[in-house]
Automatic annotation (TrEMBL):
GO terms for molecular function: glutamate-1-semialdehyde 2,1-aminomutase activity; pyridoxal phosphate binding; transaminase activity. It is an enzyme of class 5 (isomerase). GO terms for biological process: protoporphyrinogen IX biosynthetic process. InterPro entries: 4pyrrol_synth_GluAld_NH2Trfase (IPR004639), Aminotrans_3 (IPR005814), Aminotrans_3_PPA_site (IPR049704), PyrdxlP-dep_Trfase (IPR015424), PyrdxlP-dep_Trfase_major (IPR015421), PyrdxlP-dep_Trfase_small (IPR015422). Gene3D superfamilies: Aspartate Aminotransferase, domain 1 (3.90.1150.10), Type I PLP-dependent aspartate aminotransferase-like (Major domain) (3.40.640.10). Homodimer. The gene is hemL. Its main location: cytoplasm. It comes from Robinsoniella peoriensis. This is Glutamate-1-semialdehyde 2,1-aminomutase. Keywords: Cytoplasm, Isomerase, Porphyrin biosynthesis, Pyridoxal phosphate. CDD domains: OAT_like. NCBIfam families: hemL (TIGR00713), PRK00062.1 (NF000818).
Amino acid sequence: MTKSESLFNEAVNFIPGGVNSPVRAFGSIGEAPRFIERADGAYMTDVDGNKYLDYVCSWGPMILGHNHPEILKSVLDACKDGLSFGAATRKEVEMAELICEIVPSIEMVRMVNSGTEAVMSAVRTARGYTGRNKIVKFMGCYHGHSDAMLVKAGSGVMTSGVPDSAGVPAGCTEDTLSAIYNDLESVNALFQEMGKDIAAIIVEPVGANMGVVPPSEGFLKGLRELCDKYGSLLIFDEVITGFRLALDGAQGFFGVKPDLTTFGKIIGAGMPVGAYGGRKEIMEMVSPVGAVYQAGTLSGNPVAMAAGLAQLHILKDHPEIYTNLNAMGDWFYAEIDNILKETNANCTINHVGSLGCVFFTENPVDNYASAKTSDTAEFARYCKYMMGHGIYLAPSQFEAMFLSAAHTKPELEQTLEIIKAYFAG
Ligand SMILES: Cc1ncc(COP(=O)(O)O)c(C=O)c1O
């Protein structure tokens, strides 16, 4: 670890906390972050030459594994034609058409550069379309770091124990209402009080930033019904679930149609890409057609589009990828559950398809409050052990494990052995 440590010691002098995103810091497990030199397939190698089986997958984008040859070729070819034009390109049209074809709820889409931007723009569009200001979000759901969304957010906000961010004026969050995930009554109560002022509900259709919290039976459908009743829009934040649970994301997987959807991660195959889209009449609110302003110098960047298009085409042309990935997830997380039971570990495991999370609590975890009952010190011990045995996990209790199509059964079996050895003590 000497090279990672010395890079980290240097980095903290020039980068806040030594990292460009707080979730990359290993502070919650008391270690220096691993500085990664290269990655291939299901593995990453750090600057000290340590090789890790990667269960973070760049926090989701690398669903086909690292360095997929077709994606790499598509990117390198695009680079030869120029890195950015700040003008319209054919690839953007191809991308928009492909997304509209894959995701039935989307008739028009705008490309942006991150999930944060996608959410910020979708929320603005919902407000512009409805002429209302209030947004309902759920405690423990993370929707990026725009001001209005930093209320009881998940992911790094949850790990750092900072409930809200400094630097966010109260005025920016006064229209953000918080509800309890999987608790329709808490949403209903907000609508009963101020339904006619609510522009939208935004939800992660699978909570994946407070660990993994699946939606309970009828929860998403209930949100759809409330939005219909009060003339509000339903926004699915599919930055993690999009093109992961199924080609058409969580909305296809659970059969609930949102009005607007946000994407990130997989849509860019590792390049900085996000997108938001929905029904035409809503999306035509966006500039230059409509009055909702949103723009981006590098949005729809040709190299980023080349990466995303290549990945989405592979996923579309190979539906077996989802069948295999979800079956592998069901098997792998069930095996972990068996280990937890056999060793009497005080843990709970949640999963949906290839997303999963071991919570260090014996309580069922179905929302923010129950996720918070986890013993984060115990998680830190587990995470350190796994990292020490070549298994790269997100260094926080409140993040997901990601499987990719590059993970093989023998590799998962090897991981199970290591998990077993940890819990057997
Ligand atoms: C559900 C969800 N929405 C939005 C975001 C923000 O995306 P980005 O980090 O690309 O800004 C994330 C990031 O993890 C996310 O998980």
